[in-house]
Amino acid sequence: MENSSKFDSPTNVSLANKDLVSSMIEYKAISVFLVLLICVIGIIGNIMVVLVVFITRDMRTPTNCYLVSLAVADLMVLVAAGLPNVSDSLAGTWIYGHAGCLGITYFQYLGINASSCSITAFTVERYIAICHPMKAQTVCTVSRAKRIIAIVWFFTCIYCMLWFFLVDIQVNKNLQVECGYKVSRNLYLPIYFTDFAIFYVIPLFLATILYGLIGRILFLSPIPNHPESTTERLREKSNKEKNGTESESNKTNNRNRPKGALSSRKQVTKMLAVVVVLFALLWMPYRTLVLVNSFVENPYLDPWFLLFCRICVYANSAINPVIYNLMSQKFRTAFKRLCKCGQVETQRRNTYMTTSSYSMVKDPTNVKSEKKEKPPLENQNIVPKNSDKMKVEGELYYSVV
Does the keyword Membrane apply (predicted)? Predict the structure, then answer.
């Protein structure tokens, strides 16, 4: 396989074969439509994930911090790999120059590797949180999650710098500018195998073992007592001994609280497991193709299969927000709040203006009657306090929304 082969091109996730499909208008139309559709949906969805976690205070959990890292990495893949693929198909040549070739190649592999590391990080975090709840009190924190994410991105940034020395623009036999490899096949094959092992095989092997242990805890045995819940039960028990009785509502809440916590943990774990399974399935065609073509003398370069592999890669970066919306009640509610925030803000402004207008055009006769029917002094001191409390609650409600 020669260096000028478009299968060797790092752009478009190494899956373009322009020499075979340049004259296929049908192929180009379908390719551009599907890639553009997936990229638009994925970019909007991943931006919403980042926004809801930053805006909503209740969503700032260690797991969601890793999901933000995954969303940023997926955004990078869609922008650096998906969108250039659309422009490359429409223009028929590389239009971003030498600097664009280096930068786009670097960022697309940075997003791919960072997404794999983020999946591994939240898998380990879920294992510690469920299987070792005592240790999770000090290990599974937001501050530690931020430090781990910083380490992940620092490592992938350094690792991916290798691509700056492996790619360059060149002119093919059809006088078309390409962004491709400038080294021999023997040098870049070890890089493919290293990526395959570090960013695909090892994360999936680790996820299989850890989710097996998590499933055994969640579905086959009682969940370990959480330290906070144990302390809360002791406090409630001491209060019960002091009061001598316990209300029916408290009994009901105590019975439902463990079930609710277990159900919530199962829901989050199922959602993250689905993300890992989709990562394995959607990346398998591309990884398998690269692995097989590395050993055969005549690589398999069917254009429609290449398009299928490329669509799977982009779909993996776009589908995660959809999974969060379908399987997580918190994310679904946060997405709805984010979509309706403009409507709520307009409604609050209209309510404020209506209230102000009403107070300004108040009937003077009603004011006089109110002065005559003034309640006693002690009642006056009570009513304003309640009204102030209601006002504060209203303000807090609108500020949260």
Answer: yes
